[in-house]
Amino acid sequence: MFVLFFVAPIVFALVQSMFATRNSGLGLGAPETVFVFVENYARAFDDPAFLASLGRLLVFSVIEVPLMVFTALSLALLIDSGRARAPRFFRVLYFAPYGVPGVIATLLWGFLYVPATSPVLQVLSSLGLDVDPLSSGNVLFAIANIALWGFAGYNMVILLAALDAIPSELYEAARMDGASAWSIMWNIKLPLVRPSIILVTVFTIIGTLQLFVEPLVLAPLTTAINSTFTPNMAAYNQAFAQGNPNLAAAMAVIVAVIGFVFSFGFLRLVNRKGNRAW
To answer: Is residue 135 part of a domain?
Structure first.
């Protein structure tokens, strides 16, 4: 199953990215598939729209990754604190948005982002505050908000599981030594859930590089999102609108390599710092 549904598609994409379909002669003959090696990759990097989508995705990652990790960790620490009321209720409440499909969640938020259908924007407009979440300067933050709303609860559950696994004897010993709640959080909870924080961060990095559904659904609502807004949208456009699946495969491979480099680089960085601290 792993080879069939994971390894085989990757190999197929790599093979597809090294071929191109061309017409023979004057274009009157049947098209033929030729081996072009890295020509599709060169075409992808020569495409200004694709390069712009990569830059846009990098900016989105800088916004989304710290925001996601901080929000998920804050929610987990709040629920895990001894002062939290109805922790099971809030655990379900925060996790519930993850059960909403991405398309449906984006549609719901899309109604809140359009002034004609958003009661929030209408109230702000009546107060003299004209806000357009889908403008070119705000659309990345609007998409980041949708992703945060949908996945913060999922990451929170991972961190909560790590917090629940901490032996209660450590807390009791710290309190006997006079440690405050802040000191317990900083010196016991955070160091012990560090592997889970790293895991959540890697998941978020990979998730941001897969950005596709939210901008695709929001595209009809704004002119700030075009068919090449993200690398995945650019690959989708090449495959199904331009009829060039080979170039689309090359773009997909580039995104996959970037995701691997970022994730592996982050893991190497945090492991190196962890070893030095140890």
So the answer is: no
Instruction: Indicate whether 130 belongs to any domain.
Output: no
Residue 109 lies in a domain: no
CATH number at residue 194: 1.10.3720.10
CA 26 to chain centre: 45
Decide if 21 is inside a domain: yes
pTM of the model: 0.90
Q: What is the pLDDT of residue 231?
A: 96
On the question of pLDDT at 22 being above 90, the answer is no
Tell me the C-alpha distance between 61 and 65, whole Å.
6
Rounded to 10°, the helix 245-277/48-80 angle is: 40
Band of residue 241 on the pLDDT scale cut at 50, 70, 90:
very high
Range of the domain at 86: 2-100+141-277
